[in-house]
Amino acid sequence: MKRTTTLAAVVLAAALLPVSASMSSASPAGSGAARPSADDDSRSADHRGKDHGGKDRRYTDAKGMPSPLVVAHRGASGYRPEHTIAAYELAVAMGADYIEPDLVMTKDGQLVDRHEPEISGTTDVAAHPEFASRKTTKKLDGVDVTGWFTEDFTLAELRTLRAKERLATVRQRNTIYDGMYQVPTYEEVLQLRERLSRQYNRTIGIIPEIKHSTYFHAKGLNPEPVVVQLTERYGLNKRNAPMWIQSFEITNLKDLRFRHGYKANSTFLAWTGTGPLDGPYDLVSRGDKRLYQDWMTPKGLKEISRFANGIGPEKFFVIPKKADGTLGQPTSLVGDAHRLGLKVIPWTFRNENQFMAKDFQNGTNPADYGKAVQEQVTYLRTGLDGLFTDNPDTGVVARDVLWGRL
């Protein structure tokens, strides 16, 4: 199910269009009068006779989805505050195949969609005097972090907060949407996936990441069975579903598969940092000294293939930068992973200069756009199965270039 060149030509303008979202604390984030909410949609003529709790199975098979995939990293987060319904809606309008929520837990055991347990960078919590006393310092994967943490809030309390742009100095234009959107739950994003699939008459995939599993378990919270229960409820806990669960840890990926009955796809994430804590924290905290780079070797990949279906490496594992900041030559990672049956979908492709090798930068302003299409095409030509991008329209155009359509 490949995109047409017409779509590739028009999605570039979509970033300039507003995406409606309710600002009422009484309704879920994401939809105003111009676009029905998930609750309204469940009562629409299109959905009569179907239980919105996951019994509409028309879009629960990944068969026919394009390759390589365009994965909207936290939604269209280059244009809207990340992890909001508006960011996901815009991503799909731009042609994204998958949307990605990051999952953390609340005090009352609810899965919500935030980049990290600490939420001062992604919400207006600091502006709420009623929560001032909850500011604290905690150890997060061995590092002291100060702020407000989701496990100290009930879902009802989080509903009183509003999302804001995390990279405000890089994406100042996104700040005009600060305060407009609520923090969505995982279930609301699952409902949104169904709604957007029907709206665009194509299967939209979802690729949630369970954040800091070891940390939450130490707090007495257990995200994995809740993830599986909701995944099952919405018809996605099966082989060939448009569903991947990701983690930078290993224990929880194994537990999902072997203890909690998870049947869909999973992927192990890795980044190129080095240091005593730059490995899977669940293992590092128990004395395992392997770094992420050790897991991206043929030996490490073989072990990953026993419990996961793919890897999500930082993009510089695939083509590293040289000492002068320019792009080097592709590594053997893609081929090594494919020989073991592992998919490879690296992160994160962003349009701004500061996130690229020097070859693709335009000018000297770190926040200016670089040669983003050229960069993504260069990486796609290594044989990737997809890529994570904050700018889904750029990913769609890059794929069309790869396919020879532009």
Describe this structure in words.
The N terminus is likely disordered. The chain starts with a helix and ends with a helix. The protein contains 15 helices and 13 strands. It is globular and about 55 Å long. The longest helix has 15 residues. It has 406 residues and is of the alpha/beta class. Strands 7-2-1-13 form a 4-stranded parallel β-sheet, with helices on one face. The protein has a 4-stranded parallel β-sheet with strand order 9-10-11-12.
SSE pattern, N- to C-terminal: HHEHEEEEEHHEEHHEHEHHHEHHEHEH
Task: Please bin the fraction of helical residues.
Answer: 25-40%
Mean pLDDT: 89
Q: Which band does the percent of strand residues land in?
A: 5-15%
Structural class: alpha/beta
Strand order of the largest sheet: 7-2-1-13
Biggest beta sheet attributes: 4 strands, parallel
**Tell me, what's the shape?**
globular
Which regions are unreliable across 5 or more consecutive residues at pLDDT < 50?
1-52
Give a count of the beta strands, DSSP E runs of length 2 or more. Answer: 13
Number of helices: 15
Distance between the termini: 17 Å
Radius of gyration: 20 Å
Question: Topology, please?
Answer:
Blueprint: H1 5-10, H2 38-42, E1 69-72, H3 85-93, E2 98-99, E3 102-105, E4 111-113, E5 136-140, E6 143-147, H4 155-158, H5 186-200, E7 205-206, E8 209-210, H6 213-218, H7 223-233, E9 244-247, H8 251-258, E10 265-270, H9 281-284, H10 292-295, H11 298-304, E11 310-313, H12 315-318, H13 333-339, E12 343-344, H14 372-380, E13 386-389, H15 392-402
Parallel strand pairs: 1-2, 1-13, 2-7, 3-8, 9-10, 10-11, 11-12
Antiparallel strand pairs: 3-4, 5-6
Helix pairs in contact: 3-5, 14-15
